[in-house]
Each structure stands twice: as C-alpha cells, then as structure tokens.
C-alpha cells in the first residue's frame, strides 16, 4: 500500500499499464511536458517518449477519432480530454463511432479505448468547464462509464478500463485529484466494473452517490446518525455497467432511497436509478424515492451562485428526512 | 502503367460493383430491400483502381455510398448483399445494413452513416501502423460534402503533422445530397485544400482508371516512404439520386445523360481493347461472370434466414 493522491493513482496506473503492454499509449492536449492540466501524465514522456505520450493539437474530434481508428488497428489508446465539457465537440466520434462500431459491424470489431478526463465544480471555471455530462455516455449503448470517487478506485478501475476491449468513458473529478488515499502497489490490482461499494452500512435509508457526492453523502450520514437516522451509502463506481443488485438489496433492507449527484437532476443518473428500483422493488419501498441533483441552470461562475446551483450536504440531509416523512 | 493482371482485376471489380448496384436497385424497387440505399453507379473507377494497389492488411474507411469500396476491398458479394437485406448471413448479421458494412479481416474499417465520420478513424489506423513500425497504409474515401466537415480539416492536419501513411481520396460527385458544390464549397478544386495542410493535392478525372492510378501511385510511394499524406480529388458523378427514391430536382436529365457518356467502365473497356491489353472475349467473360456472381449473391441473400430477434442485445459489448 502507498498513500497517494487520486491524480497520482491515475498517473501511476497509466505508467504501469504502458510498461506492461506496448500497445497502450496516451494522446491528448498538453499531456507531454506539461503532464496534463491536472498532472495525470506528469513525466510519463520521460520514461515512454513523445510517441507514446503524444501531444495533440486542440482538435478533439480529430484525436478522439484517431483513437477509435488506432483501437480498430490493434492499439489500446488512452485519450485525454482536458475537460469532459470538451467531449461535446467530439461527440460524433464518441457516440456514433466508438460506441456503435462493435454492434453495427455485427460483433466483428472491437474498440479497446479509454477516453479519460475530469468534470465538475471545484475551480470556479463556470458553465463550459464545470459540467457533469456522464449521463450522455450512460444513455448510449456500447460505452462503459467509470466514475471513481477515491484514489484506490481510480487506480483499480482505470486498470480494468485499459484492459477492457470496449470503449470506456473514464470520468474523473477535478476536486478529487488532490485527495490522498491508500492505493495497493500490486500492478495487477483491478476493480471489476459493475461492482458497487458500500461505503457505509446503515438500516434506515439507502443513499446512492457518485464522485464528490459520495463524501457529501457520508457527511450527511454522520449528521443524521446524531439524530438517530442510519444511512447506507453506496458508490456504484461504474454507472455502465450499473450494479443495480447492490442497490436493490439495500432498498429491500431500508425501504427508502435517495440518489445524490452533482449532475443535473433533470434526466440524470438519479432518474434512471429510481426508475429501475421502482420497477424491481416497489413493494419494498416505504416512501417515494428522492433525487438530489443540480438545479436546471448552467454552472454559474460566482461562488455563491455556484453553491446555490449545486446540492449541499444539507440538501442530502433534507432528502433523507423527506423519505422518513420528517 | 497498370499490368494486364491488375487491369483485368480493376475491370472485374468495376463490373462487380456495377452489377451489384443494379441488383440492389432492382431488389429495392421490388420491396425486397429497405432503408437508405446510396448507389455508387458511375463512380466505380475510383474504388476499383485504388483498391487494386492495396493489400488485405491496408486499411480503408468508407462512406454512406460504400458498396463499391467494400467490394473493391475484398467483400464477398453474398455477405454484402445479405447485409443489404438485413439477413443473419450478412457481414454485420443484419445489424448494420447498407451504410455500415465492414470487414476488418480485409482492412475495411467500415462504411459510415456520418459524413466525415471515417476520416479521423483512418487517420488513427495510419497512426497505429506508424507506431507499430508496419508498412500498412490507410485510405480514407469520402465525398465532396465531407470536405466541409471539421473532421476533414482536423484529420488532414493531424496526418500531415505526424507524417502518417494515409491517402485521403475525395470522390467529388458534384452534390451533397441536393446542394451543388458552388453552394457549399469555397474552392473550385477540393485538392487546393491540401496546401493549407502542407501536403500534396491533386485533382484527377475520377472516371479515368489510368489517371486515378497515376495519382494514387505517387501518393502510395510517398506514404510508404514515410513522407506523409496526400489528398487526391477524383472528379466524378453519381448517375442515380443521392438515395433510391431521390426526385433529383437539383439537376437536369441532360446533365445526367452527358455523364453517362463518360461511363468509367465503357471507357476503360475501350482503352483495354484499343491498346490490345485484353480481348473482347476476355472482357465479355468478365461481364457475364460478374453478373452471374451478383445474381447468385442475390439468391443467397433472399434464401438466407432473418436474424433471431432474441439476439437483439448481442454484441453491444465485447464480452470476454
């Protein structure tokens, strides 16, 4: 075990996979000498050279698409999007090409490719650099979607993503990069996709949360415990595939569900999870499920406005109480 | 100079494509095919000539008007026709149809329903070839319409910057669906755009096998020498509408008839005979053999089973 930041867990996992498999390479904006805007490829060019740690022009549709073609041709590209917000200019290559190639071609092609980058609030970057667009990638069949919330998960999920023969949207969070945690040193450490982690056990209310909202939910659970309310906090870790079984089993025990995320509440992941749970476990539920998500506005610049748009720990506390009719 | 063996290969492929397309049209009109079918009739010289210099391990990306590229890159007519009919025996097991035929075993990275969608993919395949120290080249076929998409410009820039072994082949058939070039494209010759990306650009008569071949050999040599990409614009014309059923209000019958006079197959046939490269008998044999092969492919497709609806969720993901 080593203590390292979430960003270094990502960097070290990329390095170990590049050592293991010469077909793995990175490309993206500012990833060479600059080491990526958040340090996730820091110094990798020194070990692997500038061919395999390849700076690209600001040309997302071009280099994401080149990743698709390289993957078709036997490479295992890791393509960095500096911000997931920038995926929108490469959406055709992600959603129409990478995601659909295998199915359209009758199962005779594969696209072993990781598209990674960060999303979310934390830097005061406003509307075009702070979004959480994960649901777009959840919505289109053919992509897998990972969302690590701690350094250990970042390492274990990224290794799984790099070795997966499907395109993976690997979504990091900018406010998590500098948070340290224990990470196994084992170069084979992998976390299977579709296995949620119960981050806190509880008996009264189930909270499903991703990214920053795992910690915000744990904080909410601490507060609620003082009022005698026991919360179970589940981090799905990958939203495609999604470990519905762990959520359903928890809801069967608690009878109550809150889903909390930073992304838009409207048509967000929470809407999908609640739909699934009511289809499969309605008879176990003692109250309507609640979704905690961003207000329906672009992420504002001013900190006070940003805080007003994005849910807080207290919003999670209130949603939990609502399921208890309090 | 194209040797006799390759000349006959090209003539054979042009005839396979022409007959395949005519059969597809017939089946569509008999309601035996559905969907959007974009015919390549009139443009056969481009795909057949270029693919005559490619090996199975070389890559292509194709377009919505992709049957010709697929056949020229080695697609079996049976499986291609079965895919057009959505059958279980088709290249994509009925999941792709006319616009999505691919055969990675033959280096065909796929037709593409998105205009400009294939250019970055071919660029990436060329990047893989270069990174792995292989001598494989990539050819991206696309139309005049795609040259106005961002992916065209981004791909040319990347390929030139990284000196990739790729040849960009623009089939300029004069129209993006109904919009003529003068309403859509800022340059007279799309090959002019090559200069903006520091690579050679050539415009050739796309209905002339020899002209296409000469330009392509130069580009191929350059790609294999590690000197980088080339943009070749082949001026040609599609005889049929954008899709089967297109009312074609944007052009006159006279214009279409004039282009039919410039039929690439007729023209190459005359060339082969005049220059004593092939005999009437040899060419006649190719014509009847390809027609019979296409008829057999249609029979195969019609007699093939439909895909099992229970398998609709298969192959969304690679499992393994």
UniProtKB/TrEMBL annotation, chain A:
Cite the entry's keywords alphabetically.
Oxidoreductase, Thiamine pyrophosphate
Q: Where is the Transketolase-like pyrimidine-binding domain?
A: 4-179
Annotated GO molecular function terms are: oxidoreductase activity
Tagged with keyword Nucleotide-binding: no
The superkingdom listed in its UniProt entry is Bacteria
Q: Which CDD domains match?
A: TPP_PYR_E1-PDHc-beta_like
Q: Which cofactor does it need?
A: thiamine diphosphate
A Pfam family this chain is assigned to: Transketolase_C
The protein depicted here goes by the name Alpha-ketoacid dehydrogenase subunit beta
Q: What InterPro entries is this protein classified in?
A: THDP-binding (IPR029061), Transketo_C/PFOR_II (IPR009014), Transketolase-like_Pyr-bd (IPR005475), Transketolase_C (IPR033248)
Question: Which organism is this entry from?
Answer: Guopingia tenuis
The answer to keyword Oxidoreductase applying to this record is yes
Q: Which PANTHER family match?
A: PYRUVATE DEHYDROGENASE E1 COMPONENT BETA SUBUNIT, PYRUVATE DEHYDROGENASE E1 COMPONENT SUBUNIT BETA
From TrEMBL, chain B:
Q: Name one Pfam family in it.
A: E1_dh
Q: Transmembrane stretches, by residue range?
A: none
Q: Which domain of life is it from?
A: Bacteria
All copies of the Dehydrogenase E1 component domain together span 13-309
Cofactors named for this entry: thiamine diphosphate
Q: Which UniProt keywords apply?
A: Oxidoreductase, Thiamine pyrophosphate
Gene Ontology MF terms in the entry: pyruvate dehydrogenase (acetyl-transferring) activity
Name its GO BP terms in alphabetical order.
pyruvate decarboxylation to acetyl-CoA
Does Oxidoreductase show up as a keyword for this record?
A: yes
- The protein's name: Thiamine pyrophosphate-dependent dehydrogenase E1 component subunit alpha
What species was this sequence derived from? Guopingia tenuis
């Amino acid at each position: 075990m080593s203590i390292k930041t979430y960003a270094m867990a990502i960097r070290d996992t990329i390095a170990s996979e590049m050592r293991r498999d010469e077909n793995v390479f990175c490309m993206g904006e500012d990833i060479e000498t600059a080491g990526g805007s958040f340090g996730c490829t820091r110094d990798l060019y020194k070990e692997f050279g500038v061919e395999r740690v390849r700076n690209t022009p600001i040309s997302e549709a071009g280099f994401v698409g080149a990743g698709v073609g390289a993957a078709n041709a036997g490479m295992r590209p890791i393509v960095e999007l500096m911000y997931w917000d920038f995926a929108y200019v490469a959406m055709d290559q992600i959603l129409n090409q990478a995601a659909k190639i295998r199915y359209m071609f009758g199962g005779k092609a594969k696209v072993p490719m990781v598209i990674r980058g960060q999303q979310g609030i934390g830097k005061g970057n406003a509307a075009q650099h702070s979004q959480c667009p994960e649901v777009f990638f959840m919505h289109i069949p053919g992509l897998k979607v990972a969302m690590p919330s701690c350094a250990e998960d970042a390492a274990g999920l990224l290794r799984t993503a790099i070795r997966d023969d499907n395109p993976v949207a690997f979504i990091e969070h900018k406010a998590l990069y500098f948070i340290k945690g224990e990470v196994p040193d084992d170069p084979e450490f992998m976390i299977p996709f579709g296995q949620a982690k119960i981050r806190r056990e509880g008996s009264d209310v189930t909270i499903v949360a991703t990214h920053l909202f795992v910690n915000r939910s744990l904080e909410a659970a601490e507060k609620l415990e003082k009022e005698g309310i026991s919360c179970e906090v589940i981090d799905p870790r990958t939203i495609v595939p999604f470990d519905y079984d762990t959520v359903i089993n928890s809801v069967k025990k608690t009878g109550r569900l809150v889903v909390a995320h930073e992304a838009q509440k409207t048509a967000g992941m929470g809407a999908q999870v609640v739909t699934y749970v009511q289809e499969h476990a309605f008879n176990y539920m003692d109250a309507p499920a609640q979704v905690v998500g961003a207000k329906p506005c672009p992420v504002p610049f001013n900190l006070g406005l940003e805080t007003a748009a994005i849910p807080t720990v207290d919003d999670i506390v209130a949603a939990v109480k609502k399921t208890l009719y309090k | 100079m194209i040797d006799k063996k390759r000349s006959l290969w090209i003539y054979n492929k042009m005839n396979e494509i022409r007959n395949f397309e005519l059969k597809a049209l017939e089946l569509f009109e008999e309601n035996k095919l559905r969907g959007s079918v974009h015919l390549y009739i009139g443009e056969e010289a481009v795909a057949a000539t270029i693919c005559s210099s490619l090996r199975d391990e070389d890559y292509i990306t194709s377009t919505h008007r992709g049957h010709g590229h697929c056949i020229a890159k080695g697609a079996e007519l049976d499986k291609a026709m079965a895919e057009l009919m959505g059958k279980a025996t088709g290249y994509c097991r009925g999941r792709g149809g006319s616009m999505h035929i691919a055969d990675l075993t033959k280096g065909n990275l796929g037709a593409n329903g998105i205009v400009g969608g294939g250019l970055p993919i071919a660029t990436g395949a060329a990047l893989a070839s270069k990174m792995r120290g292989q001598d494989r080249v990539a050819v991206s076929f696309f139309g005049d319409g795609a040259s106005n998409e961002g992916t065209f410009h981004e791909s040319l820039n990347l390929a030139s910057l990284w000196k990739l072994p790729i040849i960009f082949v623009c089939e300029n058939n004069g129209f993006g669906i109904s919009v003529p070039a003068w309403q859509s494209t800022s340059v007279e010759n799309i090959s002019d755009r090559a200069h903006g990306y520091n690579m050679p650009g050539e415009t050739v008569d796309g209905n002339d096998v020899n002209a296409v071949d000469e330009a392509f050999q130069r580009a191929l040599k350059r790609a294999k020498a590690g000197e980088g990409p080339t943009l070749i614009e082949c001026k040609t014309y599609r005889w049929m509408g954008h899709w089967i059923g297109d009312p074609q209000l944007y052009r006159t019958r006279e214009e279409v008839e004039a282009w039919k006079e410039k039929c690439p197959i007729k023209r190459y046939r005359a060339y082969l005979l005049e220059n004593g490269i092939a005999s009437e008998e040899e060419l006649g044999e190719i014509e009847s053999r390809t027609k019979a092969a296409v008829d057999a492919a249609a029979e195969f497709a019609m007699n093939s089973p439909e895909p099992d609806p229970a398998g609709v969720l298969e192959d969304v993901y690679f499992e393994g």
